[in-house]
Amino acid sequence: MKIKQIEHPPSTVVLYGTSWCYGSRQARQALDESGLVYQWIDIDRDIEARQFVETLNEGYRSVPTIIFPDGSVLVEPDWDTLIAHLRRFKTRS
């Protein structure tokens, strides 16, 4: 699991993943339960999104990749890390 920072983040949470990936499904569940507004993008269906994820992750299609409006990026987070980050992020909103 990696935590990164990007410039020019989106205005809402963006979750890049795939429908077949357990981690992507878990991340969607966590975001749904958190109540945060987010955008789901399936990189198997969106070539530009897949290329973005590959660029961000040094050539790898690492999913889930989650980008937050504060510029933080979680890559393949475990459940506890994701929940902790969502709690911190939610207090900033």
Automatic annotation (TrEMBL):
Looking up Gene3D superfamilies in the UniProt record yields:
Glutaredoxin (3.40.30.10)
Q: What is the lineage of its organism?
A: Bacteria, Bacillati, Chloroflexota, Anaerolineae, Anaerolineales
Give the source's domain of life in one word.
Answer: Bacteria
UniProt domain Glutaredoxin: residue ranges? 13-68
- Provide the protein name: Glutaredoxin domain-containing protein
